[in-house]
Automatic annotation (TrEMBL):
<feature type="region of interest" description="Disordered">
    <location>
        <begin position="83"/>
        <end position="102"/>
    </location>
</feature>
<dbReference type="Pfam" id="PF01910">
    <property type="entry name" value="Thiamine_BP"/>
</dbReference>
<comment type="similarity">
    <text>Belongs to the UPF0045 family.</text>
</comment>
<dbReference type="InterPro" id="IPR051614">
    <property type="entry name" value="UPF0045_domain"/>
</dbReference>
<feature type="domain" description="Thiamine-binding protein">
    <location>
        <begin position="4"/>
        <end position="98"/>
    </location>
</feature>
<dbReference type="InterPro" id="IPR002767">
    <property type="entry name" value="Thiamine_BP"/>
</dbReference>
<dbReference type="InterPro" id="IPR029756">
    <property type="entry name" value="MTH1187/YkoF-like"/>
</dbReference>
<dbReference type="GO" id="GO:0005829">
    <property type="term" value="C:cytosol"/>
</dbReference>
<protein>
    <recommendedName>
        <fullName>Thiamine-binding protein domain-containing protein</fullName>
    </recommendedName>
</protein>
Length: 102
């Protein structure tokens, strides 16, 4: 299981607020989560998504495209992937590991 940290930035909006675009992306993520393909967490600065890497790459493409469907002509997407293969790693297990040291 891999974890993706992603920020999708629509460029050239009419307002400094991008919450409308973030909401559209969350709708896409909700669909994938309802299908049991991913688990995700929205944060104030990004979105964290966990799942199998091929599925995550499919999700990344889908959410990168979302602002284009609203008429945006340029989108910058920042992606960081944590893909640990020696043991199962989830967002919650990573936090639990840190908390054991506190």
């Amino acid at each position: 299981m891999a974890i993706v940290d992603i920020t999708v930035i629509p460029i050239g909006t009419n307002s400094p607020s991008v919450s409308e675009y973030v909401a559209d992306i969350q709708k896409i993520l909700n669909k994938y989560e309802a299908e049991g393909k991913i688990h995700y967490q929205l944060t104030p600065m990004n979105t964290l998504i966990e799942g199998e890497l091929p599925t995550l790459l499919e999700v990344v493409a889908a959410i990168h495209e979302a602002p284009f469907h609203k008429g945006i002509n340029r989108v910058a997407t920042n992606i960081r992937i944590d893909d640990r293969r020696d043991k199962k790693s989830t967002m919650s297990s990573k936090l639990e590991s840190v908390n054991r040291h506190l």
